[in-house]
Amino acid sequence: MSYSPEELKGIAIAGRVSSVLSILGSFTIIGAFSVSRHFRSPIHRIIFFNSFYNLFDSVATMISTSGPVAGDTSSLCRFQGFALQMFPVADVLWTFAMALDTYLVVFYHFDTQSLRKLEVKYIGAITTLSFIPAFVFLFIHGREKGPIYGDQTIWCSVSRNWMILRIIFYYAPVWLVIVIVLILYCLIGIEITRVRDEFKLSDDDRIALTSGNSANSVTTTTTEANPRVKPGFTPESTMTSDTTEQITFQHLPTSRNTTTRYQTPKQRRVSLRQYIIMPSLFFLAMLATWIAPTINRISEFAHHKHGSYSLLLSVSTLGSLRGFWNGVIFITIGMKGWKRRASGRKIALEQTTNGRG
Prior knowledge:
By secondary structure, the protein is mainly alpha-helical. The chain has 10 helices and 9 strands. The model is unreliable at 199-205, 210-255 and 258-267 (pLDDT under 50). It is a multi-pass membrane protein.
């Protein structure tokens, strides 16, 4: 299918505008992370690392139709093809890392230090898995099929002559990871619902998680009886947040006083916004950017021709917005959490001041 110069120009403009927005989004993430300690949670750190990958992705989409115009064997086309093979895949893998962190927090109660120890492994694994196929493709050139990276109208990527490689090393692993992430979030949602029903959300959007399922431990001590107190069980202490829950009962027989303490599993409180809402929104944003490209590739595979102009325009626009959506979610959710905590500190300070007065 051939496209008019005006249509190709429209595709290029849409892709470059989206790319500029994504570059601004990536720099916003880097800047916010660098200047504010508020944006330093494990999930924020993963988004920060991913923003550098998004920058290279945005540079590649910024090239737009200039890659195909330069020719399949040009350095510009080869660089664009390499970047668009590697960095979108890396973006999906970083989204998986966020889901995995959330899963480890909810089910295995990883703390901040434990999650940070995984970051080097994430960087190594994600870079390796996304880099190797993209790099190897640079050196493959068939006699009849030509180079792997070639003209795909809106930019250079794996050409239709090598469609099977595009499916095996690009769309298949991407959608496999998306399905795995979706399963993880379903499991997390079920667990959060159970925990929410059991402990309820606190006022600062944090949710309590038990650190174990072991049976309650019981400690019994004996003291002198107080004849003025009637026999029975009287609660003396309750759970405090971020501490071990201890509930003390007094059993008062006629001559002796037995104090029994039931120690329940330790409680940890994690931010619902940072560990649940924000990673979930990143997943949804990533999913939105992959729908149009996947439909386009399926159409090409089935009909052996490029999709319609409107479909290519959607691919160029949505496929270039990864960094933009990441930046919007990063700042929006982060600022809401910061305002909520600031408001909580202000109220606590006012209550302390009034109490002293």
